Amino acid sequence: MTTDEISKNKDQEQYEIDTLTNDRLIKDHEYDGIKELDNDLPPWWKWLFYISIAFGIIYLVRLWVFQSEDLYQVQEYQKDMEEAASIVTKPAADFEIKVLDDPASLANGKDTYDKICQVCHLIDGGGLVGPNFTDNYWIHGNTMEDMYQIVTDGVIEKGMIPYKDQLSPTQRLEVLSYIIKDLHGTTPANPKAPQGEELEWPY
Amino acid sequence: MAIEKFTYDNKLAKSFAVVTILWGVVGFLVGLIAALAILWPSVSMEMPFLTFGRVRPLHTNAAIFAFVGNAIFTGVYYSLPRLLKTPIYSKILGWLHFWGWQLIIVLAAVSLLAGITTGKEYAELEWPIDILIAAVWVIFGWNMIATILNRRTRHIYVAIWFYLATFVTVAVLHIVNSFELPVSLFKSYPLYAGVQDALVQWWYGHNAVAFFLTTPILGLMYYFVPKAANRPIYSYKLSIIHFWALIFIYIWAGPHHLLYSSTPDWAQALGVVFSIALIAPSWGGMINGLLTLRGAWDKVRQDPVLKMFVVGVTAYGMSTFEGPLLSLKSVNAISHFTDWTIAHVHIGTLGWNGMLTFGMLYWLFPRFYKVKLYSTSLANTHFWLATLGMLFFAIPLYFAGFTQALMWKQFTPEGYLKYTNFLETYTQIRTMHLLRAFGGVMYLTGAVLMVINLIKTAQAGKFARYEEDQAASRESGNHGAETFHRRLERKPVTFTILALVAILIGGIVEFLPMFLIKSNIPTIASVKPYTPLELEGRDIYIREGCYNCHSQMIRPFRSEVERYGEYSKAGENVYDHPFQWGSRRTGPDLAREGVKGKMYKPDSWHYEHFVNPQKTNIQSIMPPYPWLASNDIDVDKIPAKLRAMKKLGVPYSDAEIENAVSALQKQAQGIAEGLRQSGIEVEDQREIIALIAYMQRLGTDIGKASASGMTSK
Lengths: 203, 713
What we know:
The complex is a heterodimer of chains A (about 200) and B (about 725).
Chain A: H1 3-13, E1 16-17, E2 24-31, E3 34-37, H2 43-64, H3 73-87, H4 103-121, E4 137-138, H5 144-153, H6 169-183, E5 197-198
Antiparallel strand pairs in A: 1-2, 2-3, 4-5
Chain B: E1 3-9, H1 11-39, H2 52-84, H3 91-113, H4 127-149, H5 158-177, E2 180-184, E3 187-190, H6 194-211, H7 215-229, H8 236-250, H9 265-276, H10 279-291, H11 297-302, H12 304-326, H13 329-335, H14 339-369, H15 376-409, H16 422-427, H17 430-460, E4 466-472, H18 484-488, H19 492-516, H20 532-543, H21 558-564, H22 603-611, H23 613-616, H24 638-647, H25 654-658, H26 660-677, H27 687-697
Antiparallel strand pairs in B: 1-4, 2-3
């Protein structure tokens, strides 16, 4: 190779410079006028990539080698349930099944009723799938004790859900008090035909 | 080295651009209808095709495959010839592609609204359309690859790498996810069931996002951003690394859609780690896009095209950071099934896909018509409407998602769910849905301004169909010293094959164990196939798109077990072709709807509720389905359906298939009789009876298990 040729080669290897950024353009990289710069990968980007891969390796090692509990969802669930069982407070010892008539309890009762019970007993108590609460006919009795038992244990075969797992004892009293005090005796828009037997109203 | 002259034909790219705009507006409008149908079920006016369950799939399909799809083709047919210095290989193939794709879109719109659907999200189209899609896709790929082989340039540019990866991957995804057994022209059942179906479906769903909404758009970015800014690409090295890393890693991440489901822990874990590993490769694309604008920031301030590109690429960066975040199990436990996911995808679609497309259209039209854009200020207004519309859309939904998730999980000190009534958790976020709809209106308005602006632009100029160009012919032989990758860029076929290998690995590693190793889906002996009536009910469930609002997957969380009942087991869905786990709980989970427990409702309640959900709760946003009470079950198809299921491995005996119709009628009669006793006038053969039968079957099988029948650990 003559010196001439060497210097020519050198020239060819010379990079063109992008004037706006002073970065090197890569030779021969031009597509429909689009050129490419010879910039390196930003170091922070490389670290981001390395760290994310390291995260993955550690994660999989914890899963497969150490079988860490928190990566197995059923174990995680069981732990949660045990914890929950320990923090749940029990109902008050002096709990008594009785009709509540303070406005706050009745308002709470209405709230529960409108959210949960209305889908079957309708908002005005007229009854749809569940029986009418406004009339004097009752299937399972009309005292608070009777009703409390129904709301607690349900009559699932007929479609009345047991609410012992969904409503607290107080909530059950409140909603029934609302039925007894406020709904019973009113005139609903479309009353369902009487179900059960006619009973004298005790309240 | 002879210089050759040749001409580009802009007609195809322009036609694709026009339909992009058309379907874009339609897609946004349908999205708005869906948003309103959630807010006010009366919007559907008791017409089946306007209910949310049918409108939502139309919206997603229109936005993804019609709007973004046509935008991709616009960009490819415009950029490919110019990047390769050769006209498109075949105009005939090009026009077949164009009309074929539009035909698919029209068929999709009609069939989805008619309730013809496979019930798999983003893959709802039935088998004849699936075949058509495959054919048109092959035409597209053939034309593209042949053009590449005809090229005058030696190397293929990074945009084309992305186009090629898109082509092969979408082909693989579509074919593998569409294996289905036809029952009739309009109905098929997928080959896979339950957990396996879920894995394949979300491998598909996730990678539809990756290879339909991301890689081709990155290709467009690599062409249109440097062109519009007249700046060089920031880093060629970054292009190489992020391209290969992206396509290799993306394919593994599908199971992040199935976190805390009954998918095995190892598959979920792969979903988590590969999603995290995706941050850097995705951001590589963002960096290369944004840093290409170095030295042109003054232009960005003035040019609406560049502004849109900047917001688009930034939205890409945001959503590809958020995606991995949502793949962490602790975050997913909150975000999944809520509006958070919907906010997330709309940052991607409205921001990244929408903005890049709009920018491209504003750049292309003046070039098509050889005039200046009719109004820059109108385009700027569009830019602001789109940007703010996206934020108005997404921010309320983030808030809604978070709020609803917390409400689902909240307990009282006594240990009861604080919000026992599901609907209450929806009512709380309704205002956010109003704001979301408002954001949608803004975004749509912006798009309408674009339509006006581009029509005016076209009217002011004259369409320049042909463009002359010239280039040296491609020489073979000595290429001097080249890096390995540079050499690869000269070998498009090898390149394509390597890309194919890269995307096959993840899928194979995840699928094979799931299909071959039995312990991944522990059998539950008491789980039995559906009765003919229940199967029919299930098909109605799919037809009406109930899965768009209801999930059937109780995650192993205390809050879900308290609300819905025992968490879902993999073995419960083995006969579910397709699985129906859902992705958003706009209504409560139905996986245990039939269990006589916390969710139980008697037949008569279901009847009243389906006919008019607002009767059982005035605030309900579930649409009324009165036609179910007057439509008759198509009994003639029942034996064929059972036979198809049998072929797919559902153990129906020959006798069961033979007696299917009478078994169906007998079960229907029992239910109808019960309803009549509760004072509901209904005939035995109505569709509603089948749907009720399906509801009452849901989740009940494991309850019938004797202790020995259960093999869960």
